[in-house]
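Async update (no meeting this week)

Hi team, since we skipped the sync, here's where things stand on the single-chain job. The sequence we agreed to prioritize is pasted below, unchanged from the tracker. I ran it this morning and attached the output directly underneath so nobody has to dig for it. Comments welcome in thread, and please keep replies under the output.
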Amino acid sequence: MYTFKESINSDVTFQTNLSLHPWIEHFVIRVSVGLSFIVNDFLNNIEDIFVTDKPDLAFLRITEEVDGMGGNQEISALYQRKLRIFMQADHQIKARDEALIHMAENAIFLSLKTCFRCGHELEMININDDEVRRLAPFLPTMPPDKMCRGDASICISCAVGDWKKDKQEISYSTAEIDAVDGGKQHWSDMNDQQSLTEALTKITEEEAECLSNTEKRERSAIQQAKDNENKRDKQKDALLKAPSGKSVAIFDMADVDKLLSDNSEASRDQVARIKGLVKKIKQVSPRKKLVTIPDQWCEYCDNLALKFPNFTEVIFYLRNQLALSDLGDKVLRFLPILLVGGPGIGKSEICLTISEYFATTLKIIDISSAQTGTALTGSESYWGNTQPGMLFTELVLGVGNVANPIIILDELDKANSSSDYDPLAALHTLLEPRQAKRFQDLSVPDIIVDASHVIWIATANSIDLIEAPILDRFTVFNIADPDADQMIAIVNSQYQRFIDKHPSGGVFEKEIRDDVRNELCNHHPRKVRKLLEQAFGLAAFDKRNYLIVQDIKDSDVSKKRKSGIGFIMPV
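Output:
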């Protein structure tokens, strides 16, 4: 049996790292061969953080230990070790120390997914399943008195290698070797019992007994070198995905591992669904970026007030919250707000503008079409087609990798009150930061998600149909229809937005003509944007670089619909 002591050749691993990082000479680094490249990446990151190849560290010690977590601990211990990292910089700098802690956490996380003997990725396998054991005789065994529920972390390459050591050497054909290697290669892609069976039927005990140890070792050495190179590339990619700057842990990866073990005896479909979800989660980092405010936030608020003059109170509130954040950690945050006003006055437009400037992600939930709260918080886990809700998907799996996204609850007053399932029920906890820190999606209740950094903005035409407990959780702003002077500013802003953003905007006049502006001021802000886009198209077709009043009138489809459109057929 392979032992912990045999796995560590501290002289080899330390000398290898020392040749790449001479500054570690007076520190202690004792790790297994399989984890040495993770340590090397970690040392590279330290040099990047200090921006020098001689980091100013007063203390550094990197060792490894048995994790002590999971169901079949003794089996997992054959392949799994957890890095232990202790370090201290000579001089404390808050941002730099946070970066060091973050990179250390990443290294520890990667170590738990990597075989400490060979560097291959570990697989979670239920070694107590009789069918799995029948198809995979190479899996290690546990003493009967220590059997327990739950998957074990297994290195397939090492498990097969250990098993073959006890088998007799008999010549083996190249074709048969390829069949065995093919079965191993397919293992990592298995998502259900059917694919498991298909892959492992290629590895029979009779074939294994005929395997030539000499030829196998030569092939394994070549393949292992390729696999380790691919593994390093994947883990570097994972480190690059990890957020830089200010970040926060949104969930605990231990909850993800526990999700697998707790559902090991669930139905086949549920297990397949959970494994698929866990695979996606493990491709991302538990830490997410906290979007911070730019230095020019005050000037931005002044410009925003010019573009949205009927939202002055909202913008003043936003300005004050940004000023408060600027005194502290500069993280973008403000309490939930509710924008109440008639349709088409720019409620959604200002939300889009704010999210775009602060470079955070934006998600919109149409409450008027929601029959239940599943869109936000997922469906109950006992349903066969259960799926996580938008909030879990955005925070845990979101491509934006952001902990403080903006979520718009559109038309909050149009929630389906007749439904047996209240689509707003989850807001009682999500709008309270203390309670939102322990958010649980109904589809994945085992994983606790920190949703306390989410920025909530709701819109409504009226507050009459919104229940008091929900209303009390918002800061409410009543948005009036813009007056004549405000409409001039809005039209100017919409025109300038097209000029600046549209690919053809630079062709047209930089300022709108007075008579065109006056015509547009007769419409709601939302309609102004639509009329402008169509009017620019008419001007382009006529090969003009300016708009005329007739462009606006011809773009007003609603008036044409009222008067009717007919065709005269030639006789």
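Quick observations from my side:
Residues 213-241 form the longest helix (29 residues).
The chain has a mean pLDDT of 77.
Reply here if anything looks off.
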